[in-house]
Protein backbone atom coordinates (compact mmCIF):
# COMPACT_ATOMS: atom_id res chain seq x y z
CA UNK A 1 0.00 0.00 0.00
CA UNK A 2 1.33 3.42 -1.01
CA UNK A 3 0.22 6.59 0.81
CA UNK A 4 0.90 9.83 -1.02
CA UNK A 5 -0.75 13.09 -2.09
CA UNK A 6 -1.90 14.69 -5.33
CA UNK A 7 -2.96 18.32 -5.63
CA UNK A 8 -2.62 18.53 -1.83
CA UNK A 9 -5.19 15.76 -1.40
CA UNK A 10 -4.66 12.38 0.23
CA UNK A 11 -4.16 9.46 -2.15
CA UNK A 12 -3.98 5.75 -1.30
CA UNK A 13 -2.91 3.10 -3.81
CA UNK A 14 -2.68 -0.67 -3.70
CA UNK A 15 0.26 -2.07 -5.68
CA UNK A 16 0.24 -5.65 -6.92
CA UNK A 17 3.18 -7.98 -7.55
CA UNK A 18 2.76 -7.07 -11.24
CA UNK A 19 3.45 -3.41 -10.36
CA UNK A 20 -0.18 -2.49 -11.05
CA UNK A 21 -1.52 0.54 -9.17
CA UNK A 22 -5.12 0.71 -7.93
CA UNK A 23 -6.43 3.93 -6.43
CA UNK A 24 -8.39 3.36 -3.22
CA UNK A 25 -10.75 6.29 -2.51
CA UNK A 26 -12.26 7.22 0.84
CA UNK A 27 -9.43 6.00 3.08
CA UNK A 28 -7.85 8.32 5.62
CA UNK A 29 -4.70 7.87 7.70
CA UNK A 30 -4.50 10.80 10.15
CA UNK A 31 -1.40 12.12 11.87
CA UNK A 32 -1.02 11.62 15.61
CA UNK A 33 -1.52 15.30 16.43
CA UNK A 34 -3.96 16.27 13.67
CA UNK A 35 -6.96 14.21 12.59
CA UNK A 36 -7.53 16.35 9.50
CA UNK A 37 -3.97 15.94 8.19
CA UNK A 38 -2.62 12.80 6.57
CA UNK A 39 0.50 10.72 6.05
CA UNK A 40 2.34 10.68 2.73
CA UNK A 41 5.49 9.08 1.44
CA UNK A 42 4.50 5.81 3.13
CA UNK A 43 4.95 2.28 1.80
CA UNK A 44 3.36 -0.66 3.62
CA UNK A 45 3.67 -4.39 2.98
CA UNK A 46 0.46 -6.31 3.45
CA UNK A 47 -2.30 -8.36 1.88
CA UNK A 48 -6.01 -8.13 1.20
CA UNK A 49 -8.06 -10.96 2.66
CA UNK A 50 -11.72 -11.92 2.65
CA UNK A 51 -13.04 -12.57 6.13
CA UNK A 52 -16.26 -14.32 7.02
CA UNK A 53 -17.94 -12.17 9.67
CA UNK A 54 -21.23 -13.61 10.92
CA UNK A 55 -21.99 -15.14 7.53
CA UNK A 56 -21.07 -12.13 5.43
CA UNK A 57 -17.82 -11.45 3.59
CA UNK A 58 -15.76 -8.41 4.55
CA UNK A 59 -12.45 -7.22 3.13
CA UNK A 60 -9.52 -6.51 5.43
CA UNK A 61 -6.06 -5.20 4.62
CA UNK A 62 -3.54 -6.92 6.89
CA UNK A 63 -0.34 -4.91 7.35
CA UNK A 64 2.78 -6.83 8.34
CA UNK A 65 5.61 -4.42 7.58
CA UNK A 66 6.44 -0.76 7.01
CA UNK A 67 9.11 0.17 4.45
CA UNK A 68 8.76 3.94 4.59
CA UNK A 69 6.81 6.43 6.70
CA UNK A 70 6.43 10.11 5.84
CA UNK A 71 9.46 9.97 3.59
CA UNK A 72 11.66 8.12 6.09
CA UNK A 73 13.14 4.97 4.59
CA UNK A 74 12.90 2.16 7.16
CA UNK A 75 14.12 -0.91 5.25
CA UNK A 76 17.48 -0.94 7.05
CA UNK A 77 15.80 -0.89 10.49
CA UNK A 78 15.19 -4.12 12.38
CA UNK A 79 11.75 -5.72 12.24
CA UNK A 80 10.74 -4.71 15.76
CA UNK A 81 11.74 -1.09 15.06
CA UNK A 82 9.72 -1.04 11.83
CA UNK A 83 6.69 -2.54 13.55
CA UNK A 84 7.00 -0.14 16.48
CA UNK A 85 7.01 2.87 14.15
CA UNK A 86 4.11 1.42 12.17
CA UNK A 87 1.94 0.89 15.26
CA UNK A 88 2.77 4.15 17.04
CA UNK A 89 2.81 6.64 14.17
CA UNK A 90 0.32 5.19 11.69
CA UNK A 91 -1.92 2.50 13.16
CA UNK A 92 -2.73 4.04 16.56
CA UNK A 93 -3.95 7.33 15.02
CA UNK A 94 -5.97 5.32 12.50
CA UNK A 95 -7.58 3.23 15.28
CA UNK A 96 -8.28 6.41 17.26
CA UNK A 97 -10.05 7.81 14.21
CA UNK A 98 -12.16 4.66 13.91
CA UNK A 99 -13.12 4.74 17.58
CA UNK A 100 -13.97 8.45 17.64
CA UNK A 101 -15.91 8.60 14.38
CA UNK A 102 -17.56 5.18 13.85
CA UNK A 103 -20.22 6.60 11.52
CA UNK A 104 -17.72 8.34 9.25
CA UNK A 105 -15.56 5.27 8.70
CA UNK A 106 -18.49 3.36 7.23
CA UNK A 107 -17.51 4.86 3.88
CA UNK A 108 -14.09 3.15 4.05
CA UNK A 109 -13.82 0.45 1.35
CA UNK A 110 -12.14 -1.85 3.85
CA UNK A 111 -10.59 -1.76 7.31
CA UNK A 112 -6.89 -1.86 8.12
CA UNK A 113 -5.47 -4.29 10.69
CA UNK A 114 -1.88 -4.89 11.77
CA UNK A 115 -1.33 -8.61 11.37
CA UNK A 116 -1.04 -10.28 14.81
CA UNK A 117 2.42 -11.67 15.55
CA UNK A 118 3.67 -13.97 18.27
CA UNK A 119 6.99 -14.99 19.77
CA UNK A 120 8.72 -17.68 17.74
CA UNK A 121 8.16 -20.21 20.52
CA UNK A 122 4.47 -19.37 21.03
CA UNK A 123 3.34 -22.13 18.69
CA UNK A 124 0.84 -23.71 21.09
CA UNK A 125 -1.04 -20.41 21.23
CA UNK A 126 -0.79 -19.91 17.47
CA UNK A 127 -2.07 -23.38 16.55
CA UNK A 128 -4.75 -23.76 19.20
CA UNK A 129 -5.93 -20.20 19.89
CA UNK A 130 -5.07 -17.76 17.12
CA UNK A 131 -5.55 -19.83 13.96
CA UNK A 132 -8.94 -21.28 15.05
CA UNK A 133 -10.18 -17.70 15.58
CA UNK A 134 -9.10 -16.47 12.15
CA UNK A 135 -11.92 -15.39 9.86
CA UNK A 136 -9.84 -16.00 6.71
CA UNK A 137 -7.84 -18.88 5.28
CA UNK A 138 -4.28 -19.35 6.54
CA UNK A 139 -1.90 -21.76 4.82
CA UNK A 140 1.05 -21.65 7.21
CA UNK A 141 3.41 -19.72 9.46
CA UNK A 142 6.23 -17.27 8.74
CA UNK A 143 9.24 -16.94 11.04
CA UNK A 144 10.78 -13.52 10.46
CA UNK A 145 14.27 -12.59 11.63
CA UNK A 146 13.81 -9.90 14.26
CA UNK A 147 17.12 -8.07 13.84
CA UNK A 148 17.33 -7.95 10.05
CA UNK A 149 16.24 -5.25 7.64
CA UNK A 150 13.58 -5.61 4.97
CA UNK A 151 14.62 -7.63 1.91
CA UNK A 152 12.84 -7.34 -1.45
CA UNK A 153 12.06 -10.60 -3.22
CA UNK A 154 13.01 -13.86 -1.53
CA UNK A 155 14.69 -13.39 1.86
CA UNK A 156 16.78 -16.44 2.74
CA UNK A 157 16.59 -15.45 6.42
CA UNK A 158 12.81 -15.83 6.51
CA UNK A 159 11.41 -19.29 7.16
CA UNK A 160 7.97 -20.27 5.98
CA UNK A 161 6.31 -23.35 7.39
CA UNK A 162 3.31 -24.99 5.78
CA UNK A 163 1.45 -28.18 6.57
CA UNK A 164 2.79 -30.93 4.33
CA UNK A 165 -0.38 -30.95 2.24
CA UNK A 166 -0.12 -27.17 1.66
CA UNK A 167 3.32 -27.21 -0.01
CA UNK A 168 2.43 -26.16 -3.54
CA UNK A 169 4.09 -25.14 -6.80
CA UNK A 170 2.87 -22.78 -9.51
CA UNK A 171 3.33 -24.10 -13.06
CA UNK A 172 2.24 -23.03 -16.50
CA UNK A 173 -0.45 -25.42 -17.75
CA UNK A 174 -0.19 -26.55 -21.38
CA UNK A 175 -2.99 -28.73 -22.74
CA UNK A 176 -2.45 -31.34 -25.44
CA UNK A 177 -5.74 -32.55 -26.92
CA UNK A 178 -6.10 -35.78 -28.82
CA UNK A 179 -6.69 -35.82 -32.56
CA UNK A 180 -9.76 -37.90 -33.40
CA UNK A 181 -10.04 -39.61 -36.76
CA UNK A 182 -13.51 -40.45 -38.05
CA UNK A 183 -13.30 -43.58 -40.20
CA UNK A 184 -16.71 -42.83 -41.72
CA UNK A 185 -15.88 -39.30 -42.86
CA UNK A 186 -16.71 -38.51 -46.49
CA UNK A 187 -13.39 -36.73 -47.11
CA UNK A 188 -9.89 -36.69 -45.66
CA UNK A 189 -10.29 -33.02 -44.74
CA UNK A 190 -13.22 -33.89 -42.47
CA UNK A 191 -11.71 -37.11 -41.12
CA UNK A 192 -9.54 -35.62 -38.38
CA UNK A 193 -10.31 -32.99 -35.78
CA UNK A 194 -9.12 -31.96 -32.33
CA UNK A 195 -11.22 -33.48 -29.56
CA UNK A 196 -11.67 -30.60 -27.13
CA UNK A 197 -14.27 -32.43 -25.04
CA UNK A 198 -12.19 -35.40 -23.96
CA UNK A 199 -9.68 -35.03 -21.15
CA UNK A 200 -6.35 -33.80 -22.57
CA UNK A 201 -2.81 -34.55 -21.53
CA UNK A 202 -1.94 -31.77 -19.08
CA UNK A 203 1.69 -30.72 -19.26
CA UNK A 204 3.25 -28.64 -16.48
CA UNK A 205 5.95 -26.16 -17.47
CA UNK A 206 8.42 -24.56 -15.04
CA UNK A 207 9.58 -21.00 -15.56
CA UNK A 208 13.30 -20.57 -16.32
CA UNK A 209 13.36 -16.78 -16.49
CA UNK A 210 12.38 -14.28 -19.15
CA UNK A 211 9.90 -15.83 -21.56
CA UNK A 212 11.30 -19.34 -21.18
CA UNK A 213 9.13 -22.18 -19.84
CA UNK A 214 10.29 -25.78 -20.02
CA UNK A 215 8.38 -29.06 -19.52
CA UNK A 216 8.60 -30.32 -15.96
CA UNK A 217 5.89 -32.90 -15.40
CA UNK A 218 2.24 -33.74 -15.94
CA UNK A 219 -0.93 -32.90 -14.07
CA UNK A 220 -3.10 -35.81 -12.96
CA UNK A 221 -6.78 -35.06 -13.50
CA UNK A 222 -9.74 -37.28 -12.76
CA UNK A 223 -12.64 -37.26 -15.21
CA UNK A 224 -14.72 -35.43 -12.62
CA UNK A 225 -12.06 -32.74 -12.17
CA UNK A 226 -11.84 -32.24 -15.94
CA UNK A 227 -15.60 -31.79 -16.17
CA UNK A 228 -15.49 -29.15 -13.43
CA UNK A 229 -12.72 -27.28 -15.24
CA UNK A 230 -14.73 -27.29 -18.46
CA UNK A 231 -17.70 -25.86 -16.59
CA UNK A 232 -15.65 -22.78 -15.74
CA UNK A 233 -16.09 -21.70 -19.38
CA UNK A 234 -12.70 -20.01 -19.23
CA UNK A 235 -9.52 -20.41 -21.29
CA UNK A 236 -7.34 -23.02 -19.58
CA UNK A 237 -4.32 -23.38 -21.84
CA UNK A 238 -1.10 -21.61 -20.75
CA UNK A 239 -2.60 -20.36 -17.49
CA UNK A 240 -0.66 -20.44 -14.22
CA UNK A 241 -1.93 -23.28 -12.07
CA UNK A 242 -1.13 -24.03 -8.42
CA UNK A 243 -0.48 -27.73 -7.81
CA UNK A 244 0.24 -30.04 -4.91
CA UNK A 245 1.62 -33.56 -4.77
CA UNK A 246 -0.66 -36.33 -3.55
CA UNK A 247 0.43 -39.38 -1.56
CA UNK A 248 1.44 -41.11 -4.79
CA UNK A 249 3.67 -38.23 -5.87
CA UNK A 250 1.28 -37.05 -8.60
CA UNK A 251 0.75 -33.35 -9.29
CA UNK A 252 -2.88 -32.37 -8.59
CA UNK A 253 -4.90 -29.24 -9.34
CA UNK A 254 -5.51 -26.82 -6.47
CA UNK A 255 -6.48 -23.55 -8.15
CA UNK A 256 -5.59 -21.15 -10.94
CA UNK A 257 -3.38 -18.16 -10.13
CA UNK A 258 -4.91 -15.23 -11.98
CA UNK A 259 -2.60 -12.89 -10.08
CA UNK A 260 0.55 -14.30 -11.72
CA UNK A 261 1.94 -14.15 -15.25
CA UNK A 262 4.47 -16.95 -14.78
CA UNK A 263 4.81 -20.05 -12.67
CA UNK A 264 7.49 -20.44 -10.03
CA UNK A 265 11.08 -20.22 -11.16
CA UNK A 266 12.74 -23.62 -11.53
CA UNK A 267 14.94 -22.83 -8.52
CA UNK A 268 11.84 -22.31 -6.38
CA UNK A 269 10.26 -25.50 -7.71
CA UNK A 270 13.33 -27.44 -6.62
CA UNK A 271 13.26 -25.82 -3.17
CA UNK A 272 9.62 -26.69 -2.67
CA UNK A 273 10.23 -30.28 -3.74
CA UNK A 274 13.09 -30.46 -1.26
CA UNK A 275 10.83 -29.13 1.49
CA UNK A 276 8.17 -31.71 0.61
CA UNK A 277 10.76 -34.47 0.77
CA UNK A 278 12.19 -33.26 4.09
CA UNK A 279 9.10 -31.66 5.60
CA UNK A 280 8.61 -30.69 9.24
CA UNK A 281 5.25 -31.79 10.60
CA UNK A 282 3.09 -29.77 12.97
CA UNK A 283 3.86 -32.29 15.71
CA UNK A 284 7.61 -31.91 15.19
CA UNK A 285 7.26 -28.14 15.28
CA UNK A 286 5.34 -28.23 18.56
CA UNK A 287 7.85 -30.67 20.05
CA UNK A 288 10.62 -28.16 19.29
CA UNK A 289 8.93 -25.30 21.20
CA UNK A 290 10.99 -25.67 24.37
CA UNK A 291 14.25 -25.71 22.41
CA UNK A 292 13.17 -22.68 20.37
CA UNK A 293 12.33 -20.86 23.62
CA UNK A 294 15.67 -21.73 25.23
CA UNK A 295 17.59 -20.52 22.17
CA UNK A 296 15.50 -17.36 22.03
CA UNK A 297 16.19 -16.60 25.70
CA UNK A 298 19.91 -17.17 25.18
CA UNK A 299 19.98 -14.68 22.31
CA UNK A 300 17.88 -12.25 24.32
CA UNK A 301 20.46 -12.28 27.13
CA UNK A 302 23.20 -11.55 24.62
CA UNK A 303 21.17 -8.67 23.14
CA UNK A 304 20.40 -7.36 26.62
CA UNK A 305 24.08 -7.23 27.54
CA UNK A 306 24.95 -5.65 24.21
CA UNK A 307 22.19 -3.02 24.22
CA UNK A 308 21.69 -2.58 27.93
CA UNK A 309 17.98 -3.37 27.59
CA UNK A 310 15.60 -6.13 26.65
CA UNK A 311 13.60 -5.64 23.46
CA UNK A 312 12.05 -7.46 20.55
CA UNK A 313 9.16 -9.76 19.97
CA UNK A 314 10.01 -12.01 17.05
CA UNK A 315 13.08 -14.07 16.27
CA UNK A 316 14.48 -16.86 14.17
CA UNK A 317 13.77 -20.36 15.50
CA UNK A 318 17.09 -22.05 16.19
CA UNK A 319 16.62 -25.75 15.44
CA UNK A 320 14.21 -25.66 12.48
CA UNK A 321 16.82 -26.26 9.82
CA UNK A 322 14.60 -28.41 7.63
CA UNK A 323 12.08 -25.70 6.88
CA UNK A 324 12.58 -24.27 3.40
CA UNK A 325 11.64 -20.95 1.86
CA UNK A 326 9.66 -20.26 -1.29
CA UNK A 327 8.59 -17.09 -3.05
CA UNK A 328 5.50 -16.53 -0.84
CA UNK A 329 2.97 -17.03 -3.52
UniProtKB/TrEMBL annotation:
Pfam families, alphabetized: mRNA_cap_C, mRNA_cap_enzyme
Gene Ontology biological process: 7-methylguanosine mRNA capping
Cellular component per GO, a single term: mRNA capping enzyme complex
Gene3D superfamilies: DNA ligase/mRNA capping enzyme (3.30.470.30), Nucleic acid-binding proteins (2.40.50.140)
Residue intervals of the mRNA capping enzyme adenylation domain: 1-162
Catalytic activity: a 5'-end diphospho-ribonucleoside in mRNA + GTP + H(+) = a 5'-end (5'-triphosphoguanosine)-ribonucleoside in mRNA + diphosphate
InterPro entries reported for this sequence: mRNA_cap_enzyme_adenylation, mRNA_cap_enzyme_alpha, mRNA_cap_enzyme_C, mRNA_Capping_Enz/RNA_Phosphat, NA-bd_OB-fold
EC number(s) given by UniProt: 2.7.7.50
UniProt-annotated stretches for the region Disordered: 304-329
mRNA capping enzyme C-terminal domain span: 166-286
Keyword annotations of the record: GTP-binding, mRNA capping, mRNA processing, Nucleotide-binding, Nucleotidyltransferase, Nucleus, Transferase
GO molecular function, one term: GTP binding
Xref: SUPFAM superfamilies: DNA ligase/mRNA capping enzyme, catalytic domain (SSF56091), Nucleic acid-binding proteins (SSF50249)
Subcellular location(s) of the protein: Nucleus
Major subcellular site: nucleus
PANTHER family: MRNA-CAPPING ENZYME
Quaternary structure, from the entry: Heterodimer. The mRNA-capping enzyme is composed of two separate chains alpha and beta, respectively a mRNA guanylyltransferase and an mRNA 5'-triphosphate monophosphatase.
Family of this protein: Belongs to the eukaryotic GTase family.
Record protein name field: mRNA-capping enzyme subunit alpha
Amino acid sequence: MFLTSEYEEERVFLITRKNEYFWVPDLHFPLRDAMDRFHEGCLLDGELVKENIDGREEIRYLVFDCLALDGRILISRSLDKRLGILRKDLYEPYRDLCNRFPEDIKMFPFMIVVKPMELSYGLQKVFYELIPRLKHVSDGLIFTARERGYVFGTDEHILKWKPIEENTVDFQLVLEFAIYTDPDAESKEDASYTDYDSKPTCHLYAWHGGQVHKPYGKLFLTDEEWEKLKQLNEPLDERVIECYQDSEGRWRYLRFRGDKDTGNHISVVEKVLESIKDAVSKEELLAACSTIRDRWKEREKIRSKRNGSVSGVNDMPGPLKRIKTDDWK
